[in-house]
Amino acid sequence: MSERDTICALASGAPPAAIAILRLSGPQVRHLAERHLGSGLPAARHATLTDMTDNDGALVDRGLVLFMPGPGSYTGEDTLELYLHGGAAVIAHALETLTAHDGVRMAEPGEYTRRAFEAGKLDLTEAEGVADIIEAETAAQKAQALRQLGGGLSETYDQWRAELTGVLALVEVAIDFPDEGDAPQDTTAPILAKLGRVIGEIETALGDGGIGERIRDGFRVAIIGAPNAGKSTLLNRLARREAAIVTAKAGTTRDVIEVRRVLGGHVVWIADTAGLRVTDDEIEAEGVRRAEVAAREADLRLFVLDASDPDISHLSTDYRLDTDLVVANKSDLVAVPEGIKADHVISARDGAGVEPLEQAIARFVDQYAASVEAPLITRQRHRARLSQGLSSLEAARDALEQDVGAEMAAEDIRMALRQLGSIIGVVGVEDVLGAVFSEFCIGK
Ligand SMILES: Nc1nc2c(ncn2[C@@H]2O[C@H](COP(=O)(O)OP(=O)(O)O)[C@@H](O)[C@H]2O)c(=O)[nH]1
Ligand SMILES: [Mg+2]
């Protein structure tokens, strides 16, 4: 079998910068250190100041190097870090020098962490935590990523898997010795109790309101209402730029336009949508359909009313009925008519009342995020697998309760173990590894 490639990459930010960190991992690390460092192979885990020379013996740069021998390194392989001056020419010269050797190449995105995962240094949720902490922009995202990186999710999955393995063993005993010992209900009752406990815990985790995914990916706010109410003008106000086209012509907005803000300490996507009216125009009708989807999927809807033309009886849907916040716009033109109950009165054109509206969005998001402490699910991938696992366990419970066969129950529990195992990456992960690691940056 041929040796694994040695990989190298710039692990620090784009040049020019004070320092460039180049990272190397793989079987040729020792050889490369001996070949290119004035110090020769540095003492393990000791910062060493040395020259680096290229393949012709010319100086590349002078800097600190750190050698971390495998298996006690991040990737489990021999690794070397070079701390050079963070200029583009230095980085290019160093990488050219290293990749000129056979079997040494630039790393793929996330390849260091992938090797760490393959070496058993971290499980898949911990690896995802590494990607998330690099992407984290808000304190809440960072806290969630740190918890995940530290095995906060793995613990729960490990515990469930251990309990289910115990349940499976009991079911298998019942299969192997069907006629011995107690009556079936005496052996089935404790199995059902244990199974029921895990099912209950998974149901609780799944019923978290999607907080973990929202903290990671952003909360969703949809601006909806009649054509010409001033939805796009409000979006531009909230975006603080001209993100959406504003005209006096009804039916201007068709695509859903989203802008990103940090409000209440969380990422919030605010969507402008097409006015919800019945229309013969094919493109506008598609826009209305998209608006309805955005409204349904949003965590909070802002229903914008034109105070100077508040009649909404002609609208295509009744989304206004379950609207969370009613916003009366164009307060610069007229006072809000009697009988219209608005949570906020604004002039999107002048900006009056927009700041309190922003604060209301921030409060909503903050409270929503605080409604579940330390959510277990932080990605759609986890939710999908966990729901499948739950279905399998429910099938196992039904089979046991109806006494249709311990064998079927055992198969369902095995299936659930595989589904839970795939979340932390202990089984059946080939299909997800590419997707998980491709979203990393190079050098991590
Ligand atoms: N007087 C006044 N006009 C506004 C206000 N907000 C929007 N408009 C105008 O109303 C029209 C429709 O605005 P637009 O944002 O495109 O509405 P949309 O169809 O709901 O997206 C445009 O001519 C805007 O300039 C406002 O607060 N006051
Ligand atoms: Mg519009």
UniProtKB/TrEMBL annotation:
(6S)-5-formyl-5,6,7,8-tetrahydrofolate binds at residues 23, 81, 121, 444. Homodimer. Heterotetramer of two MnmE and two MnmG subunits. Residues 218-366 form the TrmE-type G domain. GO terms for biological process: tRNA methylation; tRNA wobble uridine modification. Exhibits a very high intrinsic GTPase hydrolysis rate. Involved in the addition of a carboxymethylaminomethyl (cmnm) group at the wobble position (U34) of certain tRNAs, forming tRNA-cmnm(5)s(2)U34. Mg(2+) binds at residues 232, 253. This is tRNA modification GTPase MnmE. It comes from Hyphomonas chukchiensis. GO terms for molecular function: GTP binding; GTPase activity; metal ion binding. The keyword GTP-binding applies. GTP binds at residues 228-233, 247-253, 272-275, 347-349. InterPro entries: G_TrmE (IPR031168), GTP-bd (IPR006073), GTP-bd_TrmE_N (IPR018948), GTPase_MnmE (IPR004520), MnmE_dom2 (IPR027368), MnmE_helical (IPR025867), P-loop_NTPase (IPR027417), Small_GTP-bd (IPR005225). Its EC number is 3.6.-.-. Its cofactor is K(+). GO terms for cellular component: cytoplasm. Binds 1 potassium ion per subunit. It is found in: Cytoplasm. The lineage of its organism: Bacteria, Pseudomonadati, Pseudomonadota, Alphaproteobacteria, Hyphomonadales. Pfam families: MMR_HSR1, MnmE_helical, TrmE_N. SUPFAM superfamilies: P-loop containing nucleoside triphosphate hydrolases, TrmE connector domain. It is an enzyme of class 3 (hydrolase).
